[in-house]
Amino acid sequence: MAIDIKGVFSPLSAIGTLLKHPKTITYPEVKKEIPKGYRGFHVNDLSACVGCANCQDVCMNEAIDMVYPDKEYNPKNTSGCIPRIDYGRCCWCALCCDVCPPSSLKLDNICIHADYDGDNFLYMPINKDLK
Ligand code: SF4
Ligand code: SF4
User: Fold this and answer.
1) Are strands 82-86 and 105-107 parallel, antiparallel or unpaired?
2) pLDDT tens for residues 39-82?
3) pTM for the whole thing?
4) Phi and psi for 85 in degrees, rounded to 5?
5) Class of the domain covering 33-130
């Protein structure tokens, strides 16, 4: 019976990988740089949002519904509503941002969110400065 010498020693080649530089990063200690223009979560400057619902109308995934906030952010918002995003449906196409008349709705480069509660993927974007 012929012995497959190469087959016997090939597991030892794995030892060589211990000496190689790892291809992975130790997240969350090390964070990967997000490229410029990356489409992450929405932000909305509520002092400019006029509640027109263009963003809701254009969303092909029906990922936006209009909701009443707990306070008034913009007296020019005649409907009194602001958009809420369902990240179980959103595909980050940014059409909602393209059709926003005052350009209040934008995509930030923040793109990491982990949660056990599915309801926390329903998100009302606000301007970070207004939190
Ligand atoms: S990015 Fe696209 S899919 Fe997501 S909410 Fe906006 S229009 Fe809808
Ligand atoms: S975010 Fe823009 S498009 Fe959406 S309701 Fe506000 S003003 Fe209109």
Assistant:
1) unpaired
2) 999 999 999 999 999 999 999 999 999 999 999 999 999 999 99
3) 0.80
4) -105, 135
5) alpha beta
